[in-house]
Write a structure and sequence with these properties.
Elements lengths: L1 H18 L12 E7 L6 H16 L4 E11 L3 E13 L10 H11 L8 E5 L13 E6 L6 H16 L6 E4 L14 H6 L4 H12 L8 E7 L1
Length: 228
């Protein structure tokens, strides 16, 4: 009798181990999919609007999609910029799309948008089950240069690191917002004239940064977002 109980307990434990999601926070179908669209550095808002419009039009043709919302000038992964846009994809109610969960729809969206060559990357992902666990429910790496190398050296290391991760079978996709090839302006402030006018050079630079490049300060840290 004891042997039978142990066998039943062991069999039940084995079934639970095989059927229970093994990730730290299992993905759930929340009825929404995000599309993060990035164009080459320096792309205009008009180009971003055109490409994200193509993504939205393709998404609306996919079985199980109810509606889309297009946002230009920002996305959840890369942040703000004229080269970035996103599409928020609303799925139908679960009962209206049997056998069509978010994971299956995401796979189909990747395939249907693969031919859009104007974009440097189009990434589809579901929102994280628990808010705060990264932007896409995956995990994040931070790369930091501690050796005083050039920005191009750092960029090469970042790309090599991403390529190595893409070769791993457990990585679904990987993306980095770090790219030093965006057009840049060098501004030289006449410190003497600024002080005569009662304006600090820091105030001038901060204002120009807000108008031309956003208010986020530049750092030498590269963020790599990816999902298992």
């Amino acid at each position: 009798m004891a042997i039978l109980i142990i066998a039943l307990f062991g069999g039940g434990l084995y079934v639970m181990m095989k059927t229970t999601p093994s990730s730290f926070v299992p993905n759930e179908d929340l009825g929404t999919i995000f599309a993060s669209v990035s164009l080459p550095p320096g792309s205009t808002l008009e180009r971003s609007d055109s490409v994200s419009g193509k993504v939205a039009a393709i998404a609306r043709q996919v079985d199980g999609v109810n509606n889309t919302l297009q946002v230009v000038g920002t996305n959840f992964i890369a942040g703000a910029g004229s080269a970035y846009s996103m599409v928020i994809i609303e799925l139908k109610e679960w009962g209206d799309r049997p056998g069509r969960d978010a994971t299956k729809i995401i796979g189909e969206l990747f395939g249907r948008t693969a031919g859009i060559r104007e974009a440097s990357s189009i990434i589809f992902f579901s929102p994280p089950t628990v808010q705060g666990f990264s932007a896409s429910g995956g995990f994040e790496f931070q790369l930091q240069d501690k050796g005083g190398h050039t920005i191009q050296d750092f960029y090469k290391v970042s790309n090599d690191f991403q390529n190595a991760l893409r070769a791993r079978p457990e990585i679904q996709y990987i993306n980095s917002t770090f790219n030093p090839n965006f057009p840049q302006l060098q501004l030289t402030v006449n410190t003497a004239k600024a002080k005569d006018a009662g304006v600090s050079p820091n105030s001038i630079l901060t204002t120009m940064q807000g108008y031309f490049g956003g208010s986020t300060p530049l750092t030498s840290t590269s963020s790599v977002n990816n999902t298992v």
